[in-house]
Amino acid sequence: MPAAPGGPRLLLRRLREAMAEPVSAQARLDRIVTLIAANVIAEVCSVYVLRDDNILELFATEGLNREAVHLTRMRSDEGLVGLIAKTAEPLSLSDAQSHPAFSYRPETGEEVYHAFLGVPLLRAGNTLGVLVVQNRTYRVYSEEEIEALQTTAMVLSEMIASGEMQALAPGTGSAVRRPVSQRGVALADGIGLGHVVLHEPRIVVKTLIAENVEREVERLEWAIGEVRSAIDDLVERGDGIGTGESREVLETVRMFAHDKGWLRRMREAVHSGLTAEAAVERVQSDNRARMMRQSDPYLRDRLHDLDDLANRLLRTLIGHEAVGAVGALPENAILVARSMGPAALLDYDRTTLRGVVLEEGGPTSHIAIVARALGIPAVGEIANATALCDSGDAIIVDGASGEIQVRPGPEIEAAYAEMVRVRARRQEQYRALRDLPAVTRDGVAIGLQLNAGLLIDLAHLHDSGADGIGLFRTELQFMVAQRMPSAAEQQALYEAVFAATGDRPVTIRTLDIGGDKILPYMPALEEENPALGWRAIRIGLDRPALLRVQLRALLRAAGGRPLKIMFPMVATVDEFVRARAIVDREKAHLRRHGHPLPSECRLGVMVEVPSLLFEIDEIAREADFLSVGSNDLMQFLFAVDRENRRVANRFDPLSVPALRAFRSIAQRATAAGCPVTICGEIGGRPLEAMALIGIGFRHLSMSPAAIGPVKAMVLGLDAGAVTALIDAELDAGGGGASLRPRLAAFAKAQGVPI
Ligand code: PEP
Ligand code: MG
């Protein structure tokens, strides 16, 4: 291997001088390629920049024909340069021309060169271009040379990202500025237009090239030591759990903090002349590029852990730069985060927050629940969202389709702005219905109630025009808290709920934890099938202390007013009878101590475990009311995991078996004189709600945003006609087919808005 005169350190020093010279961008770039070629002893050094239109353009060369500069252009997936841009990995070949991807460009005169080494120009994992060196001989580039070229590439990446290249060819700014459209999953409905605010602002490395290499080596070692001991502390204390970092994650991060390969690469980068922070960023950028191309979720998570660790190192080295007051946001802010806890979201100023974009977060994640309660459009599972956009970028969040548009073009922006106007008009129409009673055209009164769980939900009680709260999910208070809410805190929440609902009915559900509803401060159980595991009423009956505290808080909060409590995940009548006995004991306890008891205490059961369908007459006799939890009932009836996107939409709740199950519950409960409500998600979808009314439900409980559309449907519906249609279909023996198309056609023909 030919010894490089002075090695990468000298090259970086020279590059720093070149960067400081007051010359044009082209002159600077020409100087840089000459310096690199001389330093690595290559006959050729060329820079290709990825343009906005996805074309790679030769921007500067030493060794190839100069006339080819700004003339040689190729598609971003063409030739060896395209291959490097696509894979974001270095490519080293002793004979480039024998590589199948080689694409010959006569204008460059490159036919005489054989050895080829190209590295991507990366920034935050995005490819901005490609840096290539070539030699006439069939030589093999060493690992050190490849590393050195990657380090050098960083300087060029910064030059491109700074916008300096814009002057060289119009429209050829940095490729990361292109509009990007990406689809994830819809978490909270609504459309938000605004500008990116990174939840964890990216740490900007300003000084790339070291003045004093030895000092930078010391700084890096110091920072590694600091970060390691901070993580050791966290693991040992077993905390960090409250901040959403589980022990398992911390253990993995700790393992990476000792990863020899990772540390070696950062140390080499510092030794080659980068500052400590630039060395971390250089290795982090490669890692991010790999993360973006990694489809295996497990490996992607590990790369994320490594990314976190790099961020910790950067924060240690640069310090946490304050980003304004905590929670303060600019106008029309769209928060972009890898992940975020519900408490963090609640800390932001909601008056200017227009949307949330997450790299993680499924539809049932806590943050999704809170975003829905706040009415903030949110989208999850956007891979690399935090690398795709920069602070201040224009962005649109479509919480209906699960799409985001980063730096949208004017047409896209106009289309979304129009969509927002249409939605606002529709909301106006729903508001006009607010005070009308929900009665069908043929005179059937339908009770429309809210599903709620947080204090912020209660505001919707007034503006939606709901009759009351049909399902208050008490576990949400537990899920958004950093620690177990005390008895007093529970009581205070229930008092606030009763104060807000006034005379309107409210049904409080006891803690439905376990399964997917994990409390961050409680030890997680390793269960093979958590949805079928130790959860909800099962925990309540086996370890009644928690349930007793909650029941007491409820009974006290209710004071002299009526109280409705229901129990989740009841599988047998016996479980309900035992839960009722606990309530009776608590009532007796309060009575003994002279506390006022509720004027009336009605106890209900969630019908969400299919076994109860075969004891429905008995449970309808025992319980004061029933409420169908269709989310879980569908999950267990069809054996489809409600969290698993691959199967979650496999079966239709409007199919014959599902509708027969719902009909049998409604008919049998009604026959037994037991009031029955449906409180799963389906009650909030107009077409489904229409079918539910058709099979006999008269009370539906739903999310606040659904009240308007469902009420509009009710007002246009002839309940008798839909009953006749569904009964005929269900009694005819439909073979499992969905009635959805028939019902949609019926609604259309009858002019029912769905
Ligand atoms: C249900 O299962 O339908 C329900 C309403 O409860 P949750 O979604 O909270 O499980
Ligand atoms: Mg449920």
From TrEMBL:
Start and end residues of each GAF domain: 24-170
InterPro entries reported for this sequence: GAF (IPR003018), GAF-like_dom_sf (IPR029016), PEP-util_enz_mobile_dom (IPR008279), PEP-utilizing_PTS_enzyme (IPR050499), PEP_util_C (IPR000121), PEP_util_CS (IPR023151), Phosphohistidine_dom_sf (IPR036637), PTS_EI-like (IPR006318)
Gene behind the chain: ptsP
Keywords annotated in UniProt: Cytoplasm, Kinase, Magnesium, Metal-binding, Phosphotransferase system, Sugar transport, Transferase, Transport
PANTHER family hit by this protein: PHOSPHOENOLPYRUVATE-PROTEIN PHOSPHOTRANSFERASE
Swiss-Prot/TrEMBL cofactor(s): Mg(2+)
PROSITE patterns: PEP_ENZYMES_2
Any matching Pfam family: PEP-utilisers_N
The protein's name in its UniProt record: phosphoenolpyruvate--protein phosphotransferase
Similarity comment: family membership: Belongs to the PEP-utilizing enzyme family.
Catalytic activity: L-histidyl-[protein] + phosphoenolpyruvate = N(pros)-phospho-L-histidyl-[protein] + pyruvate
